[in-house]
Amino acid sequence: MYFITIWMQPDLKIAKPVRLAADGNITAHDVKWMHAEEAKEKEVAHMRMFDIISRKRDGLPLGYEELEYFINGIVDKSIPDYQTTALLMAIYLNGMSNRETSDMCLLMARSGDMMEFSDELVTVDKHSTGGVGDKTSLIVAPMAAAFGLTVAKMSGRALGHTGGTVDKLESIPGMKVDMTLEEFEKAYRKTGICISGQSGNMVPADKILYSLRDVTATISCIPLIATSIMSKKLAAGAKNIVLDVKTGSGAFMENPEEAFALAEKMVRIGLDNGRNVSALVTMMDTPLGYCIGNSLEVMEAIDVLKGGCAGFDLCEVSIALTAELISMASGMDVRAAAREAEKRIKDGSALKKLREMIISQGGNPAVIEDYGLFKQPRTVIEARSPESGYVSSIDAKSIGDVSMNLGAGRSRKTDPIDYSAGIRLAKKPGDRVEKGEVLAYLYTDREDAAGQAGAFLDACEFSRTMTKEKKLILGRVSKDGREVY
Questions:
Q1: In the chain, fewer beta carbons within 10 Å around the N or the C end?
Q2: 3-state helix, strand, coil in the chain (%, to 5)
Q3: What is the pLDDT of residue 160?
Q4: Residues paired with residue 394 on neighbouring β-strands, in sequence order
Q5: Residue 190 falls in which region: left (phi positive, over 0), alpha (psi -120 to 50) or beta
Q6: Do 13 and 35 lie in a common domain?
Q7: pLDDT tens-digit profile of 335-368?
Q8: What is residue 36's predicted lDDT score, i.e. its pLDDT?
Q9: How far is 395 from 287, CA to CA, in rounded Å?
Q10: Helix (H) or strand (E) holding 345
Q11: Are residues 5 and 143 in the same domain?
């Protein structure tokens, strides 16, 4: 590749990268290519947001230059919000092709800081689309790190009925999750594992678009969801990414087919941008594990890493996600990778990695042995069964709302969180229960929370016979396509 100065017209001189013929001469194809590039530059110079909106309104695909113009314009504020929201609605109504989605996602990722890892590190990341009681990151990350992979993960905070990994970690006394990029790098290089809040100026385009989607009824759009999630994953820099796409009443994508479609879109974005990506589609009708709430979920994750399966569903999903990362990074068969993941729990190396992460981020590692070091709630409320029989369902979305009302979550980003608040289930769907027996313990500091026991019971359904166990992992999406279990 050479830069050749070419006189295209008497008053026009351009410098362009030119692919020369083997003998070093400029071919007619080269000149034609340079003319096309010059025309493209002129087109971008005269581009209008009005025309971009019109194209997508009419169901036409947007080119890379049009998407680049759009993303640059929202970040530098040259495009007003009313035009941005008009394009978002056009995308919501007409969708985006795989190429459009991949291009837009990469442009969003490049709109701010991007993490880069040295080639000697085998970097992995994991993302969940959000659920109730979903503390798998606290289990998956230590298992992957114990295998020798580098987990440098940036996570979010809770909003609404779903929990946030950063809030859970912050319930550990002294734990630092707001880190500079320099602190973040020092931590993961030292221990092979670090989970922090989003650092630096990462993906500013997504912050702008998400805030507008939230108030314009364009949240539930698969291309926009996919670009929002994957732009952050691309900017975070990991080469191997596993996605846990939730479906069911407690998930954003309640319909399994929509969850598979989202998984396919995100996997394609990752593959198009040079990442190894796979996704599992998992059920979120019922809370994952037995605990919902920040310190409660940390304790349950520690219990799993100690070798106690504190809920078969939680263990199954955590091991399956870790196996995906090990398989991608090593080339190992997924079943063999699952055995390697389990081995890291049995030999204690995963728990050791969690301890190392807590220490490197300023937390008190003694919480691993003494749960009394976590903040303790002032009130414990018992929710008792109104009848005898079997628990047939516990609605995850409703339970998430109860947990938020107890103080464990936030309805607005500025709301404070009570790290000790939450719910510990005593029964799960399929369990036998007697009238008056405790179904769950509700923890809170709020004085007006007594009514939440009734709200919890409203989320439960009972039957006289044992209900059939539901499938937990519905399928997998990878470079080889969709596999339904």
A1: N
A2: 45, 20, 35
A3: 57
A4: 460
A5: alpha
A6: yes
A7: 999 999 999 999 999 999 999 999 999 999 999 9
A8: 52
A9: 8
A10: helix 334-346
A11: no
Could you tell me which of 255, 265, 268, 263 has the C-alpha nearest to residue 280? 263
Per-residue tokens: 480? 């080889």
How is residue 229 written in tokens?
Answer: 């999630």
Q: What is the pTM of this model?
A: 0.85
Tell me the CATH number at 239.
3.40.1030.10
**Sign of the CA dihedral 485, 396, 426, 460?**
negative
The answer to whether residue 65 is domain-embedded is no
| DSSP string covering 364-408 | -GGGGT-GGGSPPPSEEEEEE-SSSEEEEEE-HHHHHHHHHHHTS
Is position 115 within any domain? no
pLDDT in tens, 81-131: 999 999 999 999 999 999 999 999 999 999 998 888 888 899 999 999 888
220 assigned to some structural domain: no
Q: Are residues 172 and 141 in the same domain?
A: yes
Residues annotated as catalytic are 127, 206, 213, 228, 232
Residue 58 pLDDT > 90, yes or no? yes
Decide if 356 contacts 427 (C-beta within 8 A): no
Which CATH number goes with the domain that contains 445? 3.90.1170.30
Is the confidence at residue 19, as pLDDT, over 50?
A: no
Range(s) of the domain holding residue 37: 1-46
Q: Would you call 106 helix, strand, or coil by DSSP? A: helix
**Per residue in 178-220, pLDDT tens?**
888 889 889 999 999 999 887 678 899 998 998 899 889 998 8
Provide the domain count of the chain. 3
Average pLDDT, integer, range 132-142: 94
Same structural domain, 190 and 159: yes
Residue 226 is assigned to a structural domain of this protein? no
Q: For residue 413, what pLDDT is reported?
A: 66
Q: Two tokens at 56?
A: 């997508």
Contact predicate 418/407, CB 8 Å:
yes
Say yes or no: 381 and 448 in one domain: yes
12-17 LR contacts (CB < 8 Å, sep 24+): 12/38, 14/38
pLDDT tier, 283 (very low <50, low <70, confident <90, very high otherwise):
very high
Ordered DSSP codes for 29-75: HHHHHHHHHHHHHHHHHT--HHHHHHHHHTTPPPPHHHHHHHHHHHH
Q: At what angle do helices 256-272 and 98-109 cross, to 10 degrees?
A: 60
292 and 307 fall within a common domain: yes
Residues 182 and 327 occupy one common structural domain: yes
Q: Which two tokens stand for residue 369?
A: 């042995």
> Which of 36-40, 276-280, 283-287, 350-354 shows the lowest per-residue confidence on average (mean pLDDT)?
36-40
- Among 145, 294, 247, which residue's Cα sits nearest to residue 485? 247
> Are 181 and 255 found together in one domain?
yes
